[in-house]
Amino acid sequence: MTNDEQTPVELNVDVAHPARMYDYYLGGKDNYEADRAAAEASLEAAPEIRAIARENRAFLHRAVRHLVHSGVRQFLDLGAGLPTQRNVHEAAQEIAPDTRVVYVDNDPIVLVHARALLSGRGLGRTAVVQADVRDTPAILADEQVRSLIDFDQPLAIMLVSVLQFVPDVEPQDVVTPLRDAMAQGGYLVVSHPTQDFRASQVDQVASTYTRAKAPAVPRRKAEIERIFDGFELLEPGIVQTPLWRPEQPVTPDLDLIWMYGAVGRKL
Ligand SMILES: C[S@@+](CC[C@H](N)C(=O)[O-])C[C@H]1O[C@@H](n2cnc3c(N)ncnc32)[C@H](O)[C@@H]1O
């Protein structure tokens, strides 16, 4: 759990990592041969993955803007990934420069990026922590989290396209301790792939992640509803990501977007 510039980071480039596969889908440059090979296998099964990744980022940005406009000034972004495209702190600080953001990810490449990120405009208001989302006690006790996040003030917790990568635990086991640590009126932002559409392609993609040693599990809408236990869903509820408060006409073919997005407010 460090962003010390001197600390060497072990990237393990011979094994595909979800963060770098996602970077590849989005047209980023922070990926290696193993990531590209695994990503290509997924794209072969479901070429729509690039559109799903782009729509996921667009959903994340709309959710962040909405929450900043609603008065939220602190974000805990779990499974934050690489800042391939505008990241949470940029989207939020553009509207409210005093917004504080802590990124958490278990992929060491995110730390490498943190070094560039933290030397930018967000200095002092943005931090990156290397941790596993399943280890909520460590995240909640982390020094950087504690120094930037005031748990008595409105907070948004982001679990955007990450809970599928913890197939061995129930999503509620991750969310419940975080929810309990938040003040009432805090927000939870989630996106999650589903087999409610294109089940056979989604299965094939899941198999490519398993073969890449990053097992991923899609979930049905009813399972995603349970993640929001103790939260009131903002309109329009749990919907395919392009349908969450679109700011422009919805263009993608919705039959291909097997990813739900939703935002809840703690009751
Ligand atoms: C598909 S990317 C999503 C990135 C970003 N949240 C977004 O939606 O654009 C998934 C991210 O979750 C991270 N991740 C996967 N399993 C994780 C775990 N157990 N703990 C922390 N991060 C994890 C990956 O390293 C990757 O950066």
Which SSEs are present, and which pair or pack?
Elements: H1 18-25, H2 33-45, H3 49-69, E1 74-78, H4 88-95, E2 100-105, H5 108-118, E3 126-130, H6 136-141, H7 143-148, E4 156-160, H8 171-181, E5 187-193, H9 199-211, H10 221-227, E6 231-233, E7 239-240, E8 259-266
Parallel strand pairs: 1-2, 1-4, 2-3, 4-5
Antiparallel strand pairs: 5-8, 6-8, 7-8
S-adenosylmethionine binds at residues 18-19, 22, 56-57, 60, 79-81, 105-107, 132-134, 160-162, 165-166.
Q: Could you characterize the architecture of this molecule?
A:
The chain is α/β, with parallel strands linked by helices. The protein has helices spanning 18-25, 33-45, 49-69, 88-95, 108-118, 136-141, 143-148, 171-181, 199-211, 221-227; strands at residues 74-78, 100-105, 126-130, 156-160, 187-193, 231-233, 239-240, 259-266. The protein has a single domain, classed as 3-Layer(aba) Sandwich (Rossmann fold), CATH 3.40.50.150. The protein is built from 10 helices and 8 strands. Helix 1 (18-25) crosses helix 2 and helix 3 (49-69) packs parallel to helix 4 (88-95). The longest helix has 21 residues, at 49-69. It is globular. The relative contact order is 0.16. The model has no long low-confidence stretch (mean pLDDT 91). S-adenosylmethionine is lined by residues 18-19, 22, 56-57, 60, 79-81, 105-107, 132-134, 160-162, 165-166.
